[in-house]
């Protein structure tokens, strides 16, 4: 028997060696079969095929020999990886790259390692993140645009695909502890519910632990928060709670606990806080630090940043400051009230930048305190795109309103001056600040054709390996180059098969060649890179870049007339070897060179799923996507249900609808929420207050409409109906709402406007309870459970 088993075992091992090529790459430590034995793996096939049993099995344990499969570990000396990226911050934001906002944590990494002055994003949130964690271009992995605007084409469906394993999956398969803290904007928006599927949640992308929020943004005071797959609700935060600090606390606790239970196990920690995406929510302590710091205005700040950048050497000495755009006002032309408001907006944004950096610094220090920083590769990217222009030209106290094209006048905004940044606001700043924070470049977030939208400050340190402390590197690189850099640092190779699926090639190139001082000025190994977002596009090649001129400013959110995507765009041409900031357009002087570059863009675009080009912003937003509600017009619920994401809820926007609640009121009466979607900054709720039925419609925090019955419901069964007839004729139009109780009209009201596109970003649909924030804080406090019985709750869309 033993001879037969030995033959079977040796045959299995031989097949494993032939099939995986693992024999030469394996590094085995300890006694084979012992509980403490470890092994590296070849890594081309993940998960690693199980090894053959190497012991002996007799009829009893006495004449048998046990064998434990060796634990998989990374190659000897492989570093920990701390990958950090902030949100919506252009090149001129952090002090590390000349900005006026102190970022000591980023400074620390730059002083211990290297600053990269030509590092690029995709111009938008989730596309940059998809490129960052897969090492492939954003269209190649289905993220040509954010998930909320996904369309049914391979480059735009927000489906990463099983053939594009993330760096988390790769490192997990090679023995790393993998975790993700913060923003997850790479799960399709229609898959946020607990029904899954979970293959594109962090756990399905190789991250063993997740603590953070889903989607593009969340309120930092009452976040849309998850631990792994479980939503944390109802949300009743502790006094002074802020997610930015909570996230750092969680990450610090994680690395400390890991160090206790597995001190020798390397970690890959992906840390991506919501800062500084709107809403801008720093604590008051940090806001106070910036009082009066922006009274000089955006033009003077821009000049100061530009001077700082030259002094630091993070832009070439011959760099020119690009001109201020004609459609944004200069500071000296503003009245006193406007200056007061706009300075406050920048104070809160800067406070959020500094606060976020401070909490990142706490995480870095925790790694240092554990004695692990020397052998940790820290990659700190300031911003996943340029500074956001989504706050409108005047800023806003409610960012969802601005996103939907609703501007709040300066005099109305000043009413929120003293609470700007608090839990009573969801603020964003004027576009003029955003443009200035992208110094020395033109344009902002969303614009992939110009460096204002795609140039990011990035620093990288690994004290055990990178010895040119404080060095500057000017090679041209992109988000897709981070994964191959990590793989080279860890001596882990890119797999060819993951979970039985052949993998697409990783499209990035490692940046590790630039680490040594001798190679500080080595030619860039990234020679070509395309850019495209919402049809704005560019192509870089060997020091040249051709860029389309944005036909419409991004802060207009596609609400103007757009040109034909193929032939309606004007192209510009720049020689970056002489013109770092894209200031001198050579298109008219060098038409042949421009044509050559435009043809190269077509080649690269075809290669990476960029087609079809689409600049219809509104149609993307309104485009139907797969979900449990797709095509449905009738919805029925009973009992208590909470936490349904918007993609799995009835969508009442821009249509007629009715909400019917069949309830049983107990003796003594009842109160509580019957059904709600959204919260403090937009949404609706049907509830009983002191027994009286109320339907409350919250128009993005700007205005509230109320239908209320005069009498409390008596004990027993009742039917409450709210019926809304939409006027039609476009988005955000008005309509008439009627509240009925037991077939009798109790309130009627016409409204002039409704929510144009998005009822909410980070709130949920709930029945019988209200989670996170209420639609009317003056009436009730969450979770406001219904104290009667909901026999049936129906929503009909017409």
From TrEMBL:
Keyword line: Calcium, Hydrolase, Metal-binding, Plasmid, Signal
Keyword Signal belongs to the record: yes
Any Pfam family the entry gives: Sulfatase
Domain Sulfatase N-terminal per the UniProt entry, residue ranges: 79-490
Signal peptide (residue range): 1-25
Protein family (similarity comment): Belongs to the sulfatase family.
Stated name of the protein: Arylsulfatase
């Amino acid at each position: 028997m033993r001879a037969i088993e030995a033959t079977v075992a040796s045959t299995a091992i031989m097949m494993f060696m032939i099939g995986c090529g693992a024999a030469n790459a394996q590094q085995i430590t300890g006694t084979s079969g012992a509980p403490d034995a470890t092994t590296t793996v070849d890594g081309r096939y993940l998960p690693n095929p199980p090894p053959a049993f190497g012991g002996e099995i007799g009829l009893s344990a006495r004449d048998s020999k046990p064998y434990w499969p060796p634990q998989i570990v990374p190659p000897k000396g492989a570093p920990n990886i701390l990958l950090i990226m902030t949100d919506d911050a252009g090149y001129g934001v952090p002090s590390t790259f000349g900005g006026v906002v102190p970022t000591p944590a980023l400074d620390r990494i730059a002083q211990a390692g290297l600053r990269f002055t030509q590092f690029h994003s995709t111009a938008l949130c989730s596309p940059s993140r998809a490129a960052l964690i897969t090492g492939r271009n954003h269209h190649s992995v289905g993220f040509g645009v954010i998930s909320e605007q996904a369309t049914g084409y391979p480059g735009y469906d927000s489906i990463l695909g099983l053939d594009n394993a993330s760096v988390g999956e790769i490192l997990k398969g090679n023995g790393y502890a993998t975790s993700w803290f913060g923003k997850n904007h790479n799960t399709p928006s229609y898959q946020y519910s607990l029904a899954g599927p979970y293959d594109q949640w962090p756990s399905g992308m190789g991250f063993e632990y997740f603590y953070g929020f889903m989607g593009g943004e969340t309120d930092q005071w009452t976040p849309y928060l998850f631990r792994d797959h479980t939503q944390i609700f109802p949300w009743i935060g502790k006094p002074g709670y802020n997610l930015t600090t909570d996230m750092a606390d969680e990450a610090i606790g994680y690395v400390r606990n890991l160090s206790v239970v597995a001190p020798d196990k390397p970690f890959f920690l992906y840390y991506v806080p919501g800062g500084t995406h709107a809403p801008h929510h720093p604590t008051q302590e940090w806001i106070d630090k910036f009082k009066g710091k922006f009274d000089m205005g955006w033009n003077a700040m821009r000049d100061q940043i530009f001077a700082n950048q030259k002094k630091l050497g993070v832009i070439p000495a011959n760099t020119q400051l690009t001109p201020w755009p004609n459609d944004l006002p200069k500071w000296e032309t503003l009245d006193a009230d406007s200056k007061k408001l706009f300075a406050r907006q920048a104070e809160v944004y800067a406070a959020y930048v500094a606060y976020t950096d401070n909490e990142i610094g706490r995480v870095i220090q925790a790694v240092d305190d554990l004695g692990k920083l020397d052998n940790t590769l820290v990659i700190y990217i300031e911003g996943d795109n340029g500074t956001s222009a989504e706050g409108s030209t005047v800023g806003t106290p409610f960012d969802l309103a601005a996103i939907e094209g609703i501007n709040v006048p300066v005099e109305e905004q000043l009413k929120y001056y003293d609470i700007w940044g608090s839990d009573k606001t969801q603020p964003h700043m004027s576009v003029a600040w955003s443009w200035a924070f992208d110094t020395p470049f033109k344009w902002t977030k969303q614009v992939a054709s110009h460096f204002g939208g795609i140039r990011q400050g990035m620093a990288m340190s690994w004290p055990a390996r990178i010895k040119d402390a404080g060095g500057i590197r000017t090679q041209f690189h992109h988000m897709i180059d981070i994964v191959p850099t990590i793989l080279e640092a860890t001596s882990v190779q890119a797999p060819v098969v993951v979970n039985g699926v052949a993998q697409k090639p990783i499209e990035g190139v490692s940046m590790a060649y630039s680490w040594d001082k001798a190679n500080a000025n080595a030619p860039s190994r990234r020679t070509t890179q395309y850019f495209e977002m919402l049809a704005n596009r560019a192509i870089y090649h060997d020091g040249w870049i051709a860029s389309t001129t944005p036909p419409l400013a991004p802060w207009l959110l596609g609400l103007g007339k757009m040109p034909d995507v193929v032939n309606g765009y004007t192209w510009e041409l720049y020689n970056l070897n002489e013109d770092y900031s894209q200031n001198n357009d050579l298109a008219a002087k060098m038409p042949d060179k421009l044509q050559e570059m435009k043809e190269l863009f077509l080649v690269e675009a075809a290669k990476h799923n960029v087609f079809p080009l689409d600049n219809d912003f509104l149609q993307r937003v309104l485009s139907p996507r797969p979900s449990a509600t797709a095509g449905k017009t009738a919805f029925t619920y009973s009992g208590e249900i909470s936490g349904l994401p918007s993609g799995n809820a009835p969508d009442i926007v821009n249509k007629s609808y009715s909400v019917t609640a069949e309830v049983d009121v107990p003796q003594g009466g009842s109160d509580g929420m019957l059904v709600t979607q959204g919260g403090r900054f937009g949404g609706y709720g049907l509830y009983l207050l002191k027994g009286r039925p109320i339907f409350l419609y919250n128009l993005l925090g700007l205005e509230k409409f109320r239908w209320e019955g005069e009498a409390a419901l008596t004990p027993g069964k009742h039917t409450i109906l709210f019926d809304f007839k939409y006027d039609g004729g476009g988005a955000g139009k008005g309509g008439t709402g009627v509240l009925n109780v037991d077939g009798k009209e109790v309130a009627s009201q016409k409204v002039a406007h409704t929510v144009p596109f998005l009822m909410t970003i980070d709130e949920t649909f709930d029945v019988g309870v209200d989670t996170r924030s209420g639609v009317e804080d003056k009436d009730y406090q969450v979770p406001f459970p219904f104290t009667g019985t909901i026999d049936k709750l129906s929503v009909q869309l017409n």
